Fold:
Amino acid sequence: MSWWGKWRREDASHRVLYAIITLTVVIFAAFFLIGYDHPFSENPDFIEPRLTTVLLVFMLLVVLLAVGVTLWAVISAMKKRGKADKTVNRVPVALISTSVAVGTMLVMVVAFLLGSSSAISVNGKEYDQPTWLRVADMLVISALVLMVIATTAVAIATIRSHFKRK
Structure:
């Protein structure tokens, strides 16, 4: 018996999800409730919440964990599937997974190329590094485009299944 005990895979993923949600709620609540109105030492007109570093480190760890788990899942799925299982139950899984990976990369490249490199001013400070400005635009634009694509796909699938039942 493994260290997971008698848990099923679904139980483990649910517990991990609940743990991440709980940690997120606790950290965001602490961020807003503990020293949120603390003035910035260099300019008292600005607010510097005391737990800003904790929140930033937590969010960075969550993103790194998500990227790591995603890479692990993709690599292990590719190793398990191999070249023999290009279709499962007449569904072209290899084509779909390749299309999603290539499509995501294309959206990110196009978003990077379309991103602005114009300097911006935040709290009176100029940010003018063109590469990082484009990366920030790329992440925002690609996230929005991918959410629109996902929402459209879900809507189309729901409408199709609704009409197939009738």
Notes: The longest strand covers residues 120-122. The beta strands are 120-122, 125-127.
